[in-house]
Amino acid sequence: MQNIRRTLTRFSAPILIAAFAISVQSCSEPADKFFATAILNTNTISDFGTPILTKHINDETVEFPDIPSSKKNGDEAGKLISNNILYMEKSLNDIKALSATSDDRKAIKEKSIALYEFVIPVYKNEYTNYAKLCDSKADQAQKDALANSIEQKYAAKFEKMYIDLMETGKAFADENKLNVDLK
User: Fold this and answer.
1) Residues with Cβ < 8 Å from 180, sequence gap 6 or more?
2) Terminal CA-CA length for the chain
3) Cα(174)–Cα(67) distance, rounded to whole angstroms?
């Protein structure tokens, strides 16, 4: 009986070690999942620092006199920003949880994290203040001044970071034969 145990132990130990090594290697996400989490999720913030985003925020507060269902509660723009922040924080946590098992994955992960860490504080501060102005039906000149300030202060750096991430992502997609069209 002891001989059988020794024989099983002798043969099962290498098999268990090999199985463990394979399972550790397989912890890395497939390329398409990694790409979707680290690159494609940034599509939700691609309008950061642009008049398109501020218009979208302001449009949340528009009421139409002939359409009673368009009556607003006065917090729609704020809710939009709050929901965007929650989504960005979830995306950031998902990106941080990704496995960076190669140099290209590590670069993408770092650039994607940096992009979200750049954007989230602006949403929490300036865009939240802009939403409050919109919800309170503040003077358009006051809203425009804040929108222009955001664009002047952050848009150029965001665009540079975003383009850099997209270029790195495009190379990753090509290398992994992912069918994507990044512009």
Assistant:
1) 35, 40, 169, 170, 173
2) 67
3) 49
DSSP 93: H
**Cα 124 to Cα 19: distance, rounded to the nearest angstrom:** 46
What pTM was computed for the model? 0.81
Query: What are the per-10-residue average pLDDT scores of the chain (183 residues)?
Result: 55 47 58 94 95 96 79 88 97 96 95 98 98 96 97 98 96 91 67
CA atoms of 110 and 95, how far apart (whole Å)? 9
Among 123, 107, 125, which residue's Cα sits nearest to residue 161?
107
Cβ atoms within 10 Å, residue 103: 8
Q: How far apart are CA 153 and CA 131, in angstroms?
A: 18
Nearest-5° Cα angle at 23, 18 to 27: 150
Residue owning tokens 């590590």: 106
The 8 Å CB, 24+ separation contacts for 24-27 are 27/99
Buried b or exposed e, range 55-87, using 16+ CB within 10 angstroms: eebbebbeeeeeeeeeeeeeebbbebbeebbee
Q: What does each C-alpha distance from 177 to 93, 169, 170, 172 come to in angstroms? A: 26, 12, 10, 8
